[in-house]
Amino acid sequence: MILIKNIQLQQLINLLLLITVSYFNNQLQTNLTTILLLMLFSGSLDLAIKQEIFIPYSAFITALGVVLMLGWLKWYIPYIAITFAILQKHYLKIDKKHIFNPSNFALIVAILLFYPKALPIIGELGRTNFIIYFIIILGSIILIRVNRYLISISFLTTYIALTYFIIGNSDPSWNFSHFLDSLYSTSFIVYIFFMLTDPVTTPSNYLHQIIFGFTVAFTIIILDYLIGIRLWHQFLGLFIVSVFMTPLYREFTIKDYTKFTVILLFLVIITIILSSKKALYFSM
Length: 284
Prior knowledge:
The chain is built from 13 helices and 4 strands. By secondary structure, it is mainly alpha-helical.
């Protein structure tokens, strides 16, 4: 298999393949023109802030992540979500690097500001689509290339085990077969291969990667158990852990500690607000 040297370009191509599969399976909640406009908007904003000439692969990936994982009822919602995501990537930094995956940040912002007019979407693709397995293989290759495969392994094993033993034993309506089907959804594939394992916002140390994946899964299950299953708990779990894991693998300046304290305060507020929102539908 021929590998593309630029990893971000390969990630972009993988997401475009998912867009294609979703389109032909009638799972896209928007049209191709809107997708192109969102990519152009995201890329232009990235270029304007950076004030350099380059191909904004990261911004394109952010836009496609929003398209694949967020549903909206008003045209302006994804533009606002993407704006916040790009801004935080450039200005909300610890140790000169952003701490939140841009697509994840965009989804949190959209749900926080516009719910229920903005909701996570599932995009069920089934287990028999050859393209899905091809994308999973390509995604796995990327994880190996960026050296983040332990995060996905740690997350998946913990997530499946805790869901089975905790949610399965506490929720009489929970169905294991339905749960397994959800692992083949568009949103879960994007989450595992692109959002959860972002090399900029995750640790490079192997032990820290295992802890990171475990902690994200544990946080999601605790939120599901205490509050009830919500589609956005996967994004909120990653959002929370991205903050608390930062001191383990980033070097802090005095200014960074002040910024980190403010981020923690906003994290608490955001968690409380999102936890108070009632779900309109259940289970990813």
